């Protein structure tokens, strides 16, 4: 993933043609496109490959399983053309280590620690630091941390050193792209504000411009 | 899912033809077939539909995301023909509630609490009771609890009342089917011992016979 616009599109559109149209419109602007299981369930795993021809693809699969299954999922996603896979820390060190080992030389693993939705406060927030340390010890490329709470980006930065931070929650969820980058995020992840707009290319460009003002 | 053999096949085979052959061989014996993401990544989401013509299908997707994504995954899996989806509790009550609401009238949700691999001791085991209560409060059909530790099946039973318990870990991982049922499991989940054998139908039948001795 080149560190250019610092912008990642969360392509949570499940219609195949619409998803490809949006990818075509923004592939020159964003540094990567992040997809999730609903698109695979609706349009098939071939979408990973088709999108990877347009942009780096991050599979936000929030993998949370035993090591052997983690291996098969990461291997399958990278084999289809993904550049990175997002994995939960809370299933423990052996599962995370397996993800990193499987991706070695082929792609990157990003770890989920704290989650930004209300339910994330029940189990993930109280364990956020320990969850981040699982990722650090296992050698992940970076972490997902909510742009809706810039103080949490700064807090996680202290634990993870110079590893990358990818911040979702910008736009429709209320977070600010420039505030997230200023707080220490390496990339911001934007979904609905781009893919639901009438002009995804323009919106992506505007956000990239906003980010550039604080770099 | 009819409560007949009390046996569920974990079909962790990723080759499409082999998977369908095994499903054909055991569909008369097992109460359900459990699949996971690696099969979807290799053979496509259509496999859910094809297998659902042979047996009840449980999508062991270990869903662990924000409510809207949980909704899309559960909806997609049931729409493809699945009877049930397995969801993590640790992403909190709103995500679990969304899963249960999405499945209402169309299928069932089972909750993962404690996990049986070594990494499961780091975050899931210390929170096992609280994780089980998330499922109880949200109205899940049942829970996944490791057959490798029958004492844990008995412990979780105290928290969840008469909801179902599905126990993986029988066979290759060392758990005993009859011991798991005796400890209070409603179903045992068997994978490699069946699908990697030369005669899946016979092995499944033998395990079903073993279970019958303790009913």
TrEMBL record, chains A, B:
Pfam families: OMPdecase. Its EC number is 4.1.1.23. One of its GO terms (biological process) is 'de novo' UMP biosynthetic process. It catalyses: orotidine 5'-phosphate + H(+) = UMP + CO2. Pathway: Pyrimidine metabolism; UMP biosynthesis via de novo pathway; UMP from orotate: step 2/2. Keywords: Decarboxylase, Lyase, Pyrimidine biosynthesis. The active site is at residues 60, 62, 65. PROSITE patterns: OMPDECASE. One of its GO terms (molecular function) is orotidine-5'-phosphate decarboxylase activity. Belongs to the OMP decarboxylase family. Type 1 subfamily. Catalyzes the decarboxylation of orotidine 5'-monophosphate (OMP) to uridine 5'-monophosphate (UMP). Homodimer. HAMAP family: OMPdecase_type1_A (MF_01200_A). PANTHER family: OROTIDINE 5'-PHOSPHATE DECARBOXYLASE. This is Orotidine 5'-phosphate decarboxylase. It comes from Methanomethylophilus alvi (strain Mx1201). The lineage of its organism: Archaea, Methanobacteriati, Thermoplasmatota, Thermoplasmata, Methanomassiliicoccales. The gene is pyrF.
């Amino acid at each position: 993933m080149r560190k250019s616009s610092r912008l990642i599109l969360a392509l949570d559109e499940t219609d195949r043609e619409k998803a490809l149209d949006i990818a075509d419109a923004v592939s020159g602007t964003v540094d990567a496109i992040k997809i999730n299981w609903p698109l695979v369930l609706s349009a098939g795993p071939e979408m990973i490959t088709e999108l990877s021809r347009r942009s780096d693809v991050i599979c936000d699969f929030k993998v949370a399983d035993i090591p052997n299954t983690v291996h098969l999922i990461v291997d399958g996603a990278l084999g289809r053309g993904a550049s990175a896979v997002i994995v939960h820390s809370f299933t423990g060190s052996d599962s995370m280590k397996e993800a990193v080992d499987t991706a070695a030389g082929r792609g990157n693993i990003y770890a989920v620690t704290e989650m930004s939705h209300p339910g994330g406060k029940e189990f993930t927030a109280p364990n956020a630091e320990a969850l981040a340390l699982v990722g650090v010890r296992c050698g992940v490329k970076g972490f997902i941390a909510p742009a809706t709470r810039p103080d949490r980006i700064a807090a996680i930065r202290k634990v993870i050193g110079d590893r990358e931070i990818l911040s979702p929650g910008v736009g429709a969820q209320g977070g600010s792209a420039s505030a997230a980058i200023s707080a220490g995020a390496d990339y911001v992840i934007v979904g609905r504000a781009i893919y639901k707009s009438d002009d995804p290319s323009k919106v992506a460009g505007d956000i990239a411009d906003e980010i550039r003002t604080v770099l």
